Amino acid sequence: MSIDRPLKVVIAGEKHVGKSSLVHRFIHEQFPLKGLYSTVGFEFTLKTVQLEDGTSVVIHVYDFGGEPKFRMIFPQYASDCDGLILAFDPSREETLDLLHEWIRVYGRENESVNFLVSTKADLGVTLSPVKINEFRNTHQIDEYFQTSAFTGENTQRVFQLMAERIYKKPKRAM
Ligand SMILES: Nc1nc2c(ncn2[C@@H]2O[C@H](COP(=O)(O)OP(=O)(O)O)[C@@H](O)[C@H]2O)c(=O)[nH]1
Ligand SMILES: [Mg+2]
Fold it and tell me: Is the pTM of this model over 0.85?
């Protein structure tokens, strides 16, 4: 069985936190060795994943540039998304604080499946679980993952689980 409609998943967060690298790792299963161009506006890519029950779904990933001016156009492009991935870099703690801003302009967190994702786990920097939990409790975050586009830690899992969650969300018409 397959689902005809692609799932729209948006990844957001400050510039340089590693969003494009995470998406690249998910799509191509490798760390972008040559480096990526800085994302201007947003880019999108597609990948088919198989759910646990064998259903194939296409994930349509929208990767946003992290500049404040793009934060402003963000709600327009993200408004009908099925899933939202909020990414921060734990070695720059302010990138977690600034996610409050992304959510504020987004404003529909209770309708999508929302994941909080920290990047660059290979650097060995972690933020206090209290701070992470505070963020999760303030906003409607369904799951939190530590990831590394460098080692591949959790990079497939985030998108796989996102697809499962969207698929299982009761009110969504497929
Ligand atoms: N060590 C490490 N560096 C990373 C990782 N992911 C991204 N980077 C680096 O972080 C910088 C920003 O990455 P990029 O994906 O362009 O960030 P974006 O602006 O959020 O899309 C680049 O220099 C990447 O090589 C990771 O998992 N580990
Ligand atoms: Mg980028």
Answer: yes
